[in-house]
Amino acid sequence: MDYNATTPLEPEVIQAMTEAMWEAWGNPSSPYSAGRKAKDIINAARESLAKMIGGKPQDIIFTSGGTESNNLVIHSVVKHFHANQTSKGHTGGHHSPVKGAKPHFITSSVEHDSIRLPLEHLVEEQVAEVTFVPVSKVSGQAAVDDILAAVRPTTRLVTIMLANNETGIVMPVPEISQRLKALNQERVAAGLPPILVHTDAAQALGKQRVDVEDLGVDFLTVVGHKFYGPRIGALYVRGLGEFTPLYPMLFGGGQERNFRPGTENTPMIAGLGKAAELVTQNCEAYEAHMRDVRDYLEERLEAEFGQKRIHLNSQFPGTQRLPNTCNFSIRGPRLQGRVVLAQCRVLIASVGAACHSDHGDQPSPVLLSYGVPFDVARNALRLSVGRSTTRAEVDLVVQDLKQAVAQLEDQA
């Protein structure tokens, strides 16, 4: 029950990748048949990805994964800021950034490390300024008013994840985009560049409908291995190169229209396209199944341990969350999440984000940001169900947790 960390490949995805390895081994830039076959597969995958998120194929760039996509957006915004400063110089306008100004970013306090760390690095290097907006302890979301209040004349990007990987809390990205769109009209009238919006949709794809038009974003990160695809990713850029700037981090053979050069990884791209196709066809069914199993899990936990002992860390009244994610703590002095998991015989899960597995018994900073008390957060377990998880497996897991807790309390 750790599908937020990664997912297995669907059989159809493996088949698409295998066929590409056998039949489309040619260089996609080559004119002969094996090369053309590879190019056709890549183009078809681009169309499948675009369809999954309601975008245009020409606005999709393939990357190595979510980390690269997120870094590419941040890097591009810094480059674009300096390119504008150089080309226009100081316009003398009342609100124009002064010489030596740095681009300003706004993000939330619960972002994935592939957003937080590059931004912190830019601050350390004195290349950019960043505001980390805390999440509300009432809604669990980054409040739209707080994000708008953080805007400065030098603000160039707001980057807010679509859904949190530890709690499943869905962020108000459409509202953020709408408010910024109105603000951008005022900024342009005052001679300031518009603020761009990015969302890392890694956790949401394949679990709920994701549409770039509804979200109103300029950039969206796609991560294949979160929706039963291979470990590559993509970046959606609205009006790529025309309305929204993108600057390459790599330079080479000109692939992906020079935005992400390097000979394309045809088999992986084929698999990503097939995974996207399956999401487009079945997303509602996936979502309904996962919600049913997750809700049953929470019912069983409360029934077996009692409502007072179980603290559901990701439930905020009135706030939407992913249908598959259950973050909870079993109250007790010796029931730290890591210790409980070590006693389990069948449950495979995590205490938080997979990339934080070296944090020892320290509670998740994300849960602390959400206002979960220290002792409760230290006991947290994140269970994330998948497309094939059953109620029978939930029953096994709850019994497993019961025996683990009993064993730990007996040892005391």
Give a structural overview:
The chain has twelve helices and ten strands. It has 412 residues and is of the alpha/beta class. Strand 2 (104-108), helix 4 (113-124) and strand 3 form a beta-alpha-beta unit. Helices cover 42% and strands 12% of the residues. The strands form two sheets. A seven-stranded mixed β-sheet has the order 1-7-6-5-4-2-3, with helices on both faces. It has a three-stranded antiparallel β-sheet with strand order 8-9-10. The chain has helices at residues 11-23, 33-53, 66-88, 113-124, 144-149, 173-189, 212-215, 266-305, 337-343, 365-369, 374-378, 391-411; strands spanning 60-63, 104-108, 129-133, 155-159, 196-200, 219-223, 233-237, 310-312, 325-330, 380-384. The two termini are 28 Å apart. The model is unreliable at 90-95 (pLDDT under 50). Helix 1 packs antiparallel against helix 8, helix 2 packs parallel to helix 8 (266-305) and helix 9 crosses helix 12 (391-411). The chain is globular.
Terminal CA distance reads: 28 Å
Strand count: 10
As laid out across the biggest beta sheet, the strand order is 1-7-6-5-4-2-3
Largest sheet: 7 strands, mixed
Query: Beta-strand percentage?
Result: 5-15%
> What's the gyration radius in Å?
23 Å
- Overall 3D shape: globular
Q: Secondary-structure element order, as H and E?
A: HHEHEHEHEHEHEEHEEHHHEH
- Count the helices. How many? 12
Report the helical percentage. Answer: 40-55%
Return the structural class.
alpha/beta
